[in-house]
Amino acid sequence: MTRRRGVHVLRAAGSLLVLLALLVGVPVALAAVAGWPLPTAWPNGDQLRFAARGGLGDGVWIKVFAVVVWLAWAQLAVAVLQELLAAVRHRTGPSRSGWAAVVARRLVGALVVSSGALSYVPQALPFAEAAARPVTVPAATTITASVAALAAPPVLPAPHVVVRGETLSSIADDELGTPAAWPFLWETNRGRSFGTRVFDDPNLILPGWELAVPGPARTEPVVPEPVVPDPAMPEPVAPTLIPPVVIAAPVQTADAKQTIEHAEVVGADVDVDVDAEEPDRSSSTPAWARFTAFTGAALLATGAVAMLRSSRRRVLRPMTRAVTVAGPEGEQADAVTALVAGSDAVGLARLELALRALAGRLRRSGSEARVLAVRRGSDGLQVALDRPAVLDDPWRPDDDGGRTWLLAASVTLRELIDDARAVAPPCPALIGLGRDDSGAEIFVDLEAAGIVDVGATGSGPEAARHIAATLAVTPLADELRVVTVGAVLPELAARHEVRSLPDLPAAVADVESMTAPIVAATAGHRSTFCLRAIAGHEPWEPVVVILRDPPPPGDPGWDALTALAAAHRGVAVVGSGLPTVPGAVVPADDGTLSVAGWTVRPHGLDGAEAKLLVEVIELDEDVAHDVNDVDDVDPTTDVEPWALMVRVLGPVDVVARDGGAAEFDRAKALELVVWLAQHRHTATRTGARSALWESDLSNASFSNVVSDARRALARVALPPEGEEWLGRTYAERLPLHAQVVLDADVVRAHLARARHAPDDEAIDELRRALSLVRGAPYSGRCYLWPDAEALPSTLTLLVTTVAVELGRRLLDRDDVDGVLEATATGLEVLPGHEELVGLRLRAHAARGDRAALRHEYACYEQSLLADPWAGDPSPALAALRRELVEPVQQG
């Protein structure tokens, strides 16, 4: 260590002497030999004529040469100054070419490498701190094992992969704990070849390079083999205290947190991850990941999430106070997150559009074929028909005689729109049956299959329960009727009509009455699948009967039900262990199902999961609590000054005061900043990892995300001197700087001040608050954690409350245009909000505009119709409409 330090001293001294000789010695020598380069007096005309007749003397040429050297020296001095400034700021020097830039870069680099090596000391416990701490001597076996661990060769650190925008200083900051350690990175990697490039310039690193990281960074504990003591040896008597042993790289022990607390005394600028020192990282796996019944079934998850959000909107529409909405707790919160993780609204919308386009194409070709099953994989869709058909592009045939057709994932939605026009949802009884061995999801049209036996094994009842739950919330049907025989599923307020009947005869009678109009209309010639393509204005709603128990052999009710399903007139029967009937879905003894040649492992839903699903969907009546009313916010709270604003009221981003937006290399880095801004006082590393990732995450990956977030924020706005936007800690805490604010907090502060201000000032405060709203919360993002905490509902209620407050004050001033503008912002966030609609009705009435008043109420009704769980129109709004329309009509 002493020899290496001496080498660095010589290198630093040599580099400094060369720089002084070039920057100071050269100009002094030139001034002494040739004089100052600039003329002290300009020549007159006689002197110029004499020089022209007699020629130039030797002294003139010396002066010319001196001027050239002076210019070269000036160029070198500027280059050295730029490199020194870049080194002091821990930035990459300006990218320049030319001899001066190369010389300056090498001289300054050599100087900084040597001086940086002298100034950087690896982290270690202070000797005084370690000496003051009593250490108990363990048994002889433990001492032997510890010595073996110290003598073992160190584990080589993992390489750092360079990403765009990184420099040696930033990498040293992330990997070694301080930017001043970048010379160690330079010395370790200098001269290495990366492809065709040689790393010979510390200011030039390229994305993709794997740089070796010198110790003691990223050291991992070496677990020694246990030493078996010799029973013949006497047990040593251990003294109470022993002198401490100071090690350059701290030994990771079971008491990792205590080591970190002592290391904090050193004051080094490091970012320590406590989880990295615990070999068992299972705690970072989120609890909701165990709900595979929700995360693995896209159709059930998508429908349930849509129902939950619609239910919350229904509860929020009459509310006019900005309160914190209470989210679910415990298993309910985990279930909500699992459902959000498993939902795929865009993918299912593409699936439905593809089926509509296929139905339209079959209709024009005159084919009576129907969709039987669909396999949805990463390569696109495979659609199995119940009979051969002839199709053309973009559909491609499989090798089975025209029964299976492929739609590549590269086919755009625009290519499908023309065929899908005027076609009703062709497969309203389509359900996600399960997944094949490759992970692709298999969908089956129950209506086309007729009778579906999901197996007689233990998973059969769970599969039937899953099908019942999916049909209750499916977004693929405009109208659907489900009849359950026996307690198949706990009662839930479903999107579609669900009836629970006691026995099979009652179910048969009910099905016959519901299907009689369809049978009469079809006259026994066309299937409902074909009718939806021909007469898309009718839903031709099917009826699905789900049996809890298999019917006894010879049951006349079962025979009647089988005949209805076999007629293909909108009836399907699902159950487990059904009597032997020919069907498109064939169960196997191992619990799998076979459909269209695909082997499927069916989805299942046990009783506890079904009950939890019902509780989650019906989270409505107790959704809001006055836990943090805006009246509790101190009106004197000043959100100024702020440097960075995390915006979630609309498209998610981070902006500086000058309007510049932070650019994140990783999407998770932006999500981490958003999460921290909304969990400022409780943010921890474990909490962030559990909320943002659906699987266990390595410490290195999490550290890279944190580093990217830190760099992105610093690029858009520099933090105060000696501070960082995302602070470094020695424990679990992840602090966000106070000058990084959330737009919702700013809106809340404006609202609080408005409620304690005169009318003019209040209107100004409310307008400033509403100007921060750019759309619905988290627009364009699908984060997992907000729904489980009811954050979208809380933010939505905040916006509507501000809009209501501003609308009321402007209406009192007869500012109709202002009322319409303010309420439009609120209705963009929550369509159909009752108080906002009422303010708009009063504004139109104040103008005497009867047509606008009627149109406004019609738009309100349309917003309710577009929301499947919105409920009936508000009686108070209906009465207000009548009250306002009648005086206008009389006038």
Structure description:
The chain is an alpha+beta fold and 891 residues long. It has 31 helices and 21 strands. The strands form 5 sheets. A 9-stranded antiparallel β-sheet has the order 7-8-6-5-10-9-18-17-16. Helix 7 (168-175) crosses helix 8 (182-189) and helix 29 runs antiparallel to helix 30 (850-865). The N and C termini lie far apart (98 Å).
User: What would you call the quaternary organization?
Assistant: single chain
Mean pLDDT: 75
| Backbone shape | globular
Range of helix content:
40-55%
Largest β sheet strand count, sense and barrel closure: 9 strands, antiparallel
Structural class: alpha+beta
**Total helical segments:** 31
Distance between the termini: 98 Å
Total DSSP E strands:
21
What is the gyration radius calculated from CA atoms?
37 Å
Strand order in the sheet with the most strands? 7-8-6-5-10-9-18-17-16
Q: State the low-pLDDT regions, or none.
A: 116-156, 216-283, 624-628
Strand-residue proportion = 5-15%
Could you provide a short overview of the structure?
This protein is α+β, with helices and mostly antiparallel strands and 891 residues long.
Annotate the secondary structure layout:
Layout lengths: L1 H32 L11 H10 L3 H31 L10 H21 L7 H5 L8 H12 L8 E2 L6 H8 L6 H8 L3 E2 L2 E2 L11 E2 L44 H8 L28 H4 L2 H19 L14 H12 L2 H21 L5 E7 L2 E6 L10 E2 L6 E5 L5 H7 L9 E6 L5 E5 H4 L1 E3 L5 H15 L7 E5 L11 E5 L2 H19 L5 H7 L8 E5 L8 H11 L4 E5 L9 E3 L5 E3 L2 E5 L4 H11 L26 E4 L5 E4 L10 H12 L6 H8 L6 H18 L23 E3 H12 L4 H12 L14 H4 L2 H22 L3 H14 L4 H14 L2 H16 L9 H16 L1
Parallel strand pairs: 11-15, 12-13, 12-14, 14-15, 19-21
Antiparallel strand pairs: 1-4, 2-3, 5-6, 5-10, 6-8, 7-8, 9-10, 9-18, 16-17, 17-18, 19-20
